[in-house]
Design brief:
Helix content: 55-70%
Distance between the termini: 40 Å
Order of helices and strands: HHHHHHHHH
Radius of gyration: 19 Å
Strand content: under 5%
Number of strands: 0
Largest sheet: none
């Protein structure tokens, strides 16, 4: 995205990002200003490092990189503003989780560990607006994720959530000592 469009996106929104008639939420209140694309991209990758488990982080980082790469040549200002605002909402949601975790760990006594809930429920109003094709894709995604998490080979886990005796291919080469 060129610099003019990035400046336009940064200056467009001074009000909370919300649809008319929608009740304000914590995420919407945090998203009161768009970020330039590069800064948003870096903060997304940084928050993934802090919030997501390694398996989800690898997938999430790849997805963020692919989406930003695909949108790099977009020249429609409305599409750019929509793109940046949705990613800013996503970033604010995860930064809110980090803040809650920090507050929760400060309050935790006796080593009690609170389990973090990943993601959020789909808004019923948004669900009603989905086309039948989008609902089908959402259902396929749900089935695929259930298969991954219900796989018996993955239930035999060792430390860190990685299946016993397996090494993730992307991480194996990066942790080897250089000769």
């Amino acid at each position: 995205m060129n610099r003019t469009l990035s400046r336009l996106a940064a200056s467009v929104s001074k009000k909370p990002l919300t649809s008319p008639g929608a009740p304000p939420t914590k995420v919407v209140k945090l998203s009161d200003q768009l970020l330039p694309a590069t800064q948003l991209y870096r903060r997304l990758l940084r928050v993934h490092r802090k919030v997501l488990p390694i398996e989800m982080r690898l997938m999430g980082d790849d997805y963020v990189k692919a989406e930003f790469r695909r949108t790099r040549t977009t020249e429609n200002p409305l599409h750019i503003v929509g793109f940046l605002s949705e990613w800013k909402k996503y970033l604010d949601f995860h930064e809110g989780q980090l803040a809650e975790d920090a507050a929760g760990s400060a309050e935790a006594e006796g080593g009690a560990v609170r389990e973090r809930r990943l993601g959020q429920k789909l808004d019923p109003e948004l669900f009603e607006k989905l086309s039948s094709e989008q609902i089908g894709q959402l259902y396929e995604l749900m089935q695929a994720t259930k298969e991954v998490w219900d796989d018996p080979a993955l239930t035999k886990e060792s430390e860190g959530g990685i299946p016993a005796g397996e090494v993730l291919p992307d991480l194996a080469a990066s942790h080897l000592p250089k000769a």
